From TrEMBL:
Domain Lon N-terminal: 15-221
Entry-linked SUPFAM superfamilies: PUA domain-like (SSF88697)
InterPro entries listed in its UniProt record: Lon_prtase_N, Lon_prtase_N_sf, PUA-like_sf
Identification of the protein by name: Lon N-terminal domain-containing protein
Gene Ontology MF terms: ubiquitin protein ligase activity
SMART domains xref list: LON
Pfam families to which the protein is assigned, alphabetical: LON_substr_bdg
Length: 226
């Protein structure tokens, strides 16, 4: 088994650039612009984290579990912000979501999955479509605020303690390849199963993502008033 050094343990040559850029995948789920704290117990994943740190990439991928294929075709690249190692072998990894990706092909390396990926980016719109998108954006943002403010104080406190407060509106809603950060914050805190979050991650249309969020928020609102 290779150790976590970026050089081959036998010939001491540097690993290829493509090998160092290959994204490592865990069977979990993350969304862009949101913090995720991971508790690592398995030796293969501790090795993976050490390799990410040693090579300087400080990034690895997370995908939702798939019963047939092992993991889903879409995921989120996480950036390591801090790692705490404990004497019993546990590690707590503080990360933040950065880029969405689609899995092209995957392999296994030393007990964990690796993959070749391509990044996803929202398609930008202009003219009348942009004006319509802005109106939809503002409408869904207000619905999100209403839902957050309808939570019980202890629920809201727990959410904000872990994820921070709901982000403000982005000045330019199409400036990020992932769209507005508040959308992903809502997806992270709404009571949705991972499989319900996955389609949002795969979308490259901000309009479709906002429309889906609006449906979820309206359903939550109607359920609350029954």
């Amino acid at each position: 088994m290779l150790d976590h050094n970026p050089k081959c343990p036998l010939c001491k040559e540097e690993l290829s650039e493509s090998e160092q850029k290959r994204s490592d995948l865990r069977v979990h789920h993350g969304v862009p612009d949101c913090s995720v704290s991971l508790h690592i117990f398995e030796p293969c994943y501790r090795l993976m984290i050490r390799r990410c740190m040693e090579t300087g990439t400080n990034r690895f991928g997370m995908c939702l579990e798939d019963r047939l294929k092992g993991f889903a075709d879409f995921g989120c690249l996480l950036e390591i912000r801090d790692v705490k190692f404990f004497s019993d072998g546990r590690s707590v990894v503080d990360t933040i979501g950065r880029r969405r990706f689609r899995v092209i092909q995957h392999q296994e390396r030393d007990g964990y999955n690796t993959a070749d990926i391509e990044y996803l980016e929202d398609v930008k719109v202009e003219g009348a479509a942009q004006l319509e998108l802005q109106k939809l954006h503002d409408c869904v943002y207000e619905l999100g605020l209403v839902w957050v403010n309808s939570l019980k104080p202890e629920q809201k406190q727990r959410i904000e303690g872990h994820f921070g407060p709901m982000p403000p509106k982005d000045p330019e809603i199409q400036s990020s390849p992932n769209g507005p950060s508040w959308c992903w914050w809502l997806l992270a805190v709404l009571p949705l199963e991972g499989r319900a979050q996955l389609p949002f991650l795969a979308l490259t249309s901000l309009k479709d993502r906002l429309s889906g969020l609006r449906k979820v928020l309206l359903f939550m609102s109607h359920s609350r008033h029954r």
